[in-house]
Design brief:
Shape: globular
Number of helices: 0
Strand content: over 45%
Length: about 130
């Protein structure tokens, strides 16, 4: 049974940092691309970042580039999203998603490419 479980969300002040985790079970990250998406309140879900199975290819949305870092620990079958210099517009439910059938050297920003999803973790920026 496949399961992705996010954690690490919470309430943080602008300028602060959070590290989200996504523990994967049911498939190995060794051959899977991983992405993070988010859904701000009242808005549609949007892609944030992805990393290819090789861990040599990563992409970021322009809105988070230079502030967020995606990573993975294949030994722990866990993916991470380090979020620094957080802004109020980063408030959202954050989801991790996995594609165990992806090309080894690519990842995609489209949600349709990801078969497996976590339940989400809330990130809220306080003023």
């Amino acid at each position: 049974q496949v399961e992705l479980v996010e954690s690490g969300g919470g309430l943080v002040q602008p300028g602060g940092s959070l590290r989200l985790s996504c523990v994967v079970s049911g498939f190995t990250l060794d051959y899977a691309s991983i992405a993070w998406f988010r859904q701000p309140p009242g808005k549609e879900r949007e892609w944030v970042s992805c990393t290819a199975a090789s861990d040599q290819v990563t992409y970021y949305a322009d809105s988070v580039k230079g502030r967020f870092t995606i990573s993975r620990d294949n030994a722990e079958n866990t993916a991470y999203l380090q979020m620094n210099s957080l802004k109020p517009e980063d408030t959202a439910v954050y989801y991790c998603a996995g594609d165990p059938s992806s090309d080894y050297e690519s990842c995609a920003p489209q949600s349709d490419n990801y078969k497996y999803w976590g339940q989400g973790t809330q990130v809220t920026l306080s003023s």
